[in-house]
Design a protein that fits this description.
The protein is built from 12 helices and 7 strands. It has 395 residues and is an alpha+beta fold. It folds into 2 domains: 238 residues, no CATH class; 70 residues, Roll (SH3 type barrels), CATH 2.30.30. The strands form 2 sheets. Strands 6-5-4-1-7 form a 5-stranded antiparallel beta sheet, with no helix packed on it. Strands 2-3 form a two-stranded antiparallel sheet. A hairpin with an 8-residue loop joins β2 and β3. α2 runs antiparallel to α5 and α5 packs antiparallel against α6.
Length: 395
């Protein structure tokens, strides 16, 4: 039997397999041994467990968020996200889902919900004091309780980078990526708490729905990144947890892309224009034709009154309607009296129709206000610049 020196030997094949295995292990960041792997995952779980610092920073984030809503300032919204705690529990949810640890999963979920409850509660407390402070507006808060594809891009990038850097750099915290997660989770949740206690339309329960969908999506993104890094379930229940998270995330994506669920609930979406038929006649028409005067100058005796009222030909004025439109915000605030010091009575989103009342304009400190009546009968004053006339006004 001849031997071909060009045929690969068993040692060469083993060497190639060993090289490929080493290359794969370097990419996955996971120790190959069973004991080392378990110890490594336990260390990751410990890092993902929140500390007392997580509670303190959650309180600080909630306070800044409440101030941002009351002051209607975008910069303070961003500052609240910067001061939010490191969102390690969200990474912990992804890690627990993929390794199949129910105990660690519920521990991480409890930490996420505890921090979220702090932010939600502080927002609710701020909402209780909202009506005692004149001149507040919630246009900026409304922007954080709406679904949008840019927000999904931010939460996807933030969750993916946080999970990747959390594994790759064990000694460092990816704080910058974590800010993106806090921005998309805590801000809508704080706005929801504010809307629940202040009864401001458009904030509750829209903000809570946005928080839930963003949380499920961020966990699903983290599961995908950890799977790409080489993490696999240690027990069969890990496949179940991971599949559940993936299904929730996919359902959220399909629901948002189709907008079916949100349209049925009429939340987390801009308010549709009410289905009201608006009369576009410029002036009212007389309801009766006046009788011609007699041709002779002889006075005609007045007939005896029959007790039945006579219809006159006075024209009925046409109701004038206007649509709320704010190019920089989500709507406008109706106040009890004209001026920014007037007590807010109702918040209207873009697209809502209001009826202009006869004494519908008044100037306060150089700003024109309009006297309006909403579809539910609420009367008040709103900035004239935020109205687009839907019915022509007789000049």
């Amino acid at each position: 039997m001849s031997f071909n020196p060009q045929d690969p030997t068993q040692n060469d094949l083993n060497s190639e397999l060993t090289t490929a295995r080493r290359r794969r292990q370097r990419r996955t960041f996971i120790p190959p041994g069973g004991d080392e792997r378990s110890a490594y995952i336990a260390e990751l779980a410990h890092r993902a467990t929140p500390s007392f610092e997580f509670i303190l920073l959650s309180i600080l984030c909630g306070v800044l968020l409440a101030a941002a809503i009351m002051m209607n300032t975008p910069a303070i919204f961003f500052l609240a996200a910067l001061c939010a705690p490191f969102m390690a529990p969200v990474v912990g949810l992804s890690l627990a889902s993929i390794i199949g640890s129910p105990r660690f999963f519920f521990q991480a979920l409890g930490a996420v919900l505890f921090g979220s409850l702090i932010v939600f509660g502080i927002g609710a407390i701020a909402g209780l004091t909202a009506f005692s402070i004149p001149g507040f507006s919630v246009q900026q808060a409304l922007l954080h309780t709406r679904f949008s594809w840019p927000d999904f891009a931010v939460i996807t990038l933030g969750a993916g980078l946080t999970a990747y850097l959390f594994i790759k750099s064990p000694q460092q915290r990816p704080l910058v990526a974590s800010v993106a997660i806090a921005y998309e989770l805590f801000l809508p949740l704080g706005a929801a708490g504010f809307g629940l206690s202040s009864q401001t339309p458009g904030l509750w329960p829209a903000g809570a729905l946005v928080f839930g969908v963003h949380l499920a999506w961020s966990v699903m993104v983290g599961v995908a990144v950890l799977a790409w890094l080489g993490f696999r379930p240690l027990i069969n229940i890990g496949y179940t947890l991971g599949a559940t998270i993936v299904m929730i995330g996919l359902a959220a994506l399909v629901g948002i892309s189709g907008l079916a669920t949100a349209r049925q609930l009429n939340i987390a979406l801009p308010s549709p224009i009410p289905s009201r038929t608006v009369t576009l006649t410029a002036t009212g028409e007389p309801t009766g034709t006046p009788s011609p005067l007699p041709a002779t100058g002889t006075p005609t005796p007045a007939p005896a009154s029959s007790g039945t009222p006579t219809l006159t030909g006075s024209p009925i004025p046409t109701a004038v309607w206007a649509s709320v439109y704010s190019p920089e915000g989500g709507g406008g605030v109706v106040r009890k009296t004209p001026g920014f010091k007037g007590e807010p009575v109702k918040t209207l989103l873009n697209g809502n129709l209001v009826q202009l009342l006869p004494d519908f304009t008044q100037q306060v400190e150089g700003i024109v206000w309009t006297h309006v009546r909403t579809s539910d009968g609420t009367e008040g004053w709103i900035l004239r610049a935020l109205l687009v006339t839907a019915t022509p006004v007789k000049k």
